[in-house]
């Protein structure tokens, strides 16, 4: 009986595996108007989010996904595009929490909770937001793409509002 239980545990361990999810390409987000000037982006996040659920380990390349999507979308939102150095608008994105829910092996649900701080040229804080992005798809890579794009989509009205006020 002892050997049978050891064999069963090893069998289950061998049936599992690691699921690796990363952003293949940024999602196209419709941007109606561009904003003047340049923008600087900094992402503060662990490189990957890991979770063990059931037989599988899940690795989500979170920092890379946030960086790719936000750089791609900010390039289009600001006339001048992205710059490495401080600019008129500086955006800091901090990953607060991430969760992954495989639903019956059919759908992967990924949720990201981000704190976004927007600073002016003198690094005076203009606005702090907490944004919750979510995405579901059969493919975990697509779910991650939707989650990060969803979070950026929620950021657009706030950034536009800051430019209307100034």
Produce the secondary structure layout.
Blueprint: H1 2-15, E1 17-21, E2 38-44, E3 49-53, E4 56-60, H2 62-77, E5 81-82, E6 89-103, E7 107-119, E8 125-137, H3 140-165
Parallel strand pairs: 1-4, 2-5, 2-6
Antiparallel strand pairs: 3-4, 6-7, 7-8
Helix pairs in contact: 2-3
Q: Would you identify the regions where 5 or more consecutive residues have pLDDT less than 50?
A: none
List SSEs in N-to-C order: HEEEEHEEEEH
Largest sheet: 5 strands, mixed
State the share of residues found in helices, binned by percent: 25-40%
Radius of gyration: 19 Å
Specify the overall morphology: elongated
**Total DSSP E strands:** 8
Kindly provide the name of the CATH class. Answer: Alpha Beta
Q: CATH superfamily, called what?
A: ABC-type transport auxiliary lipoprotein component
- CATH fold-level name: Rossmann fold
Protein name: Lipoprotein
Organism: Uabimicrobium amorphum
């Amino acid at each position: 009986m002892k050997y049978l239980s050891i064999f069963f545990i090893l069998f289950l361990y061998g049936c599992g595996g690691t699921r690796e999810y990363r952003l293949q390409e940024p999602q196209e987000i419709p941007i109606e108007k561009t904003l003047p000037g340049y923008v600087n982006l900094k992402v503060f996040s662990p490189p990957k989010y890991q979770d063990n659920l059931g037989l599988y380990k899940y690795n989500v390349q979170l920092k890379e996904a946030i960086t790719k999507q936000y750089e791609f979308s900010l390039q289009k939102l600001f006339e001048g595009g992205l710059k490495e150095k401080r600019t008129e608008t500086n955006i800091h994105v901090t990953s607060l929490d991430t969760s992954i829910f495989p639903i019956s092996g059919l759908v992967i649900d990924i949720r990201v909770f981000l704190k976004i701080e927007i600073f002016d040229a003198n690094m005076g804080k203009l606005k702090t937001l907490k944004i919750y992005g979510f995405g579901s798809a059969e493919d975990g890579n697509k779910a991650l793409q939707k989650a990060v794009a969803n979070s950026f989509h929620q950021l657009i009205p706030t950034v536009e509002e800051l430019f209307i006020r100034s």
